[in-house]
Amino acid sequence: MSDVAALKDLVEKHKALKKEISKVIIGQNIAIDHILLSILSGGHSLLIGVPGLAKTLIVNTIAETLGLDFKRIQFTPDLMPSDILGSEILDETNHFKFIKGPIFSNIILADEINRTPPKTQAALLEAMQERTVTVAGHHYTLSKPFFVLATQNPIEQEGTYPLPEAQLDRFMFSINLEYPTFEEEVEVVKTTTNDFKVKIETVLSADEINAFQHLIRRIPVAENVIEYAVNLVSKTRPNSVNAPEIVVNYLDWGAGPRASQNLILAAKANAAIHGKFSPDIEDVQAVAYAILKHRIVRNYKAEAEGITEKKIIESLL
């Protein structure tokens, strides 16, 4: 299949995916779009929202439509790295045998990731970046595609361990789930309080997702679009020569080079699902907030004056 035909197929499959997901999930369109973009780009997503906004249900539904192996890990304070990665046990023949943990799956739902200590959070780092796992000196390659979709509750701070910047940077998108509108909530109540079970059809296979990821990487990008993305990221750094006043005054740290890479990859994916053969600056702007907001660190002055990440990024755009 030519790349042009593959791109048309991607547009149709993306529409079919959205249609299947909408059978179960009402609203949350921006969140679903960003999760699908991160999957097509081969990235990971962090979903932030208060309890009851269907974070887990969204991930579950997307896994069903993609026909991928799906594992949920409930992160708790007593969770150990071996509970995620797996461990070696002594079998009846007195040989060590490796029992794979839930990380050996296509989609990992890391539920309430900030409830577990940093040692266990770090167990995900290698898997997220390298798609490999090292246990007892042995190296294991994870199956492709591989995505971590983590959820986080923003209101409960007691008994939580904030994600370190190094781990946050490994998430392509940080996605805020909003409360539904009145009409959406009425529809949610109608559809979830009856005895009817919706059947979800599988739209994409693992092989198709891998092929689409390679297709998106082959999409050409104009030099001015790459320069725009890199310039946008460099403006978030307070010590940069082209940092605007709002950044110098209100940020301690800006985004690193991984943000520039993710901006271009996500812009390519955004262009592809809209049937475009190359991304433009509007595609970069469409994904910028969800890619940059968890990579910039506000200072005390920003918090005291109520200057949000959103306000800072909007001023840069």
Order of strands across the main sheet: 2-5-8-1-9
The overall pLDDT average reads 85
CATH topology of the largest domain: Rossmann fold
Low-confidence stretches: none
* CATH homologous superfamily classification of the largest domain: P-loop containing nucleotide triphosphate hydrolases
Count of helical regions: 15
Helix content: 40-55%
Number of strands: 11
Question: How would you describe this protein?
Answer:
- The chain has 317 residues and is of the alpha/beta class.
- It has two domains: 204 residues, Rossmann fold; 96 residues, Magnesium chelatase subunit I, C-Terminal domain (Helicase, Ruva Protein, domain 3, Orthogonal Bundle), CATH 1.10.8.80.
- 48% of the residues lie in helices and 15% in strands.
- The chain contains 15 helices and eleven strands.
- Strands 2-5-8-1-9 form a five-stranded parallel sheet. A two-stranded antiparallel ribbon has the order 3-4. Strands 6-7 form a two-stranded antiparallel ribbon.
- A hairpin with a 5-residue loop joins strand 3 and strand 4.
- Helix 10 crosses helix 12.
- The chain is globular and about 65 Å long.
- It starts with a helix and ends with a helix.
Key descriptive features of the protein:
two-stranded antiparallel ribbon; globular; alpha/beta; 15% strand; 317 residues; 2 domains; single chain; Helicase, Ruva Protein, domain 3; five-stranded parallel β-sheet
Give a nutshell description of this structure.
The protein contains 15 helices and 11 strands. With 317 residues, it is of the alpha/beta class.
